[in-house]
């Protein structure tokens, strides 16, 4: 560690770096002092310095798979994007009913995720798994950058630790919608029932609605 730190901070002309390169090139161990004889063994300082690399421990966790699907990228670049246009007609009618009923009850409803591409849905699942299962409690310094990146994704997408995005979600087929309603849970269930909707996971995913 001492020699690595010294090399990183030394210019190419510094005696310590010259001595380090010479010692390593000539078959010896790294030097223990910051000065010594000039480079020998018939090789230039530049060519030998170029061959020395400082290796760092790699994070064993694989990074998030890249998004290449154009439709998914639209959502990735705008995590709050809500596409209600592609909802099936019955779901679109039910959503309008719910928004009206919740507004009249003072619930100030807000539509979140509606339709979303399959590739984007997979991405949300990948983010959830990376954060909740692999990185949330990971204190490996080598994983710090990846941990920060995935945490940003997780929070930016508004994901819940209690609910992994379903692989074959009805969001993909336009048969589900997420709506935040600021009313007591029992009152919400009364409202959605009148609009032919239901919440399959009222505790773990209280904003997720599908058709009855």
The backbone outline, from C-alpha atoms, is elongated
Mean pLDDT: 81
**Looking at CATH, which topology of the largest domain would you report?**
Muramoyl-pentapeptide Carboxypeptidase, domain 2
Query: How much strand?
Result: 5-15%
Largest sheet: 4 strands, antiparallel
The level 1 CATH classification of the largest domain is: Alpha Beta
Unreliable segments (pLDDT under 50, ≥5 consecutive)? 1-10, 31-43, 51-55
CATH architect. name of the largest domain: 2-Layer Sandwich
Could you say how many structural domains there are in total? 2
What is the number of E strands?
4
Arrangement of strands in the largest sheet: 1-2-4-3
What is the overall number of helices?
8
CA radius of gyration is 28 Å
Distance between the termini: 63 Å
The percent range for helix content is 40-55%
N-to-C SSE string, H for helix and E for strand: HHHHHEHHEHEE
Label the structural class.
alpha+beta
């Amino acid at each position: 560690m001492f020699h690595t730190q010294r090399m990183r901070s030394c210019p190419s002309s510094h005696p310590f770096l010259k001595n380090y390169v010479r010692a390593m090139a000539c078959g010896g161990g790294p030097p223990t002092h910051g000065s010594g004889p000039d480079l020998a063994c018939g090789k230039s300082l530049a060519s030998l310095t170029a061959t020395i690399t400082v290796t760092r421990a790699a994070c064993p966790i694989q990074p998030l798979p890249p998004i290449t699907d154009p439709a998914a990228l639209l959502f990735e670049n705008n995590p709050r994007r809500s596409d209600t246009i592609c909802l099936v007609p019955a779901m679109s009618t039910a959503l309008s009913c719910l928004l009206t009923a919740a507004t009249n009850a003072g619930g100030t409803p807000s539509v979140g995720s509606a339709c979303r591409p399959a590739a984007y849905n997979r991405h949300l699942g990948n983010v959830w798994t990376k954060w909740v299962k692999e990185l949330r409690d990971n204190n490996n310094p080598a994983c710090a950058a990846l941990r920060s990146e995935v945490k940003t994704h997780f929070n930016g997408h508004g994901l819940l630790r209690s609910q992994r995005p379903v692989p074959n979600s009805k969001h993909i087929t336009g048969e589900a919608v997420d709506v935040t309603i600021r009313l007591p849970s029992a009152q919400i269930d009364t409202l959605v029932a009148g609009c032919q909707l239901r919440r399959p996971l009222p505790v773990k995913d209280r904003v997720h609605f599908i058709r009855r």
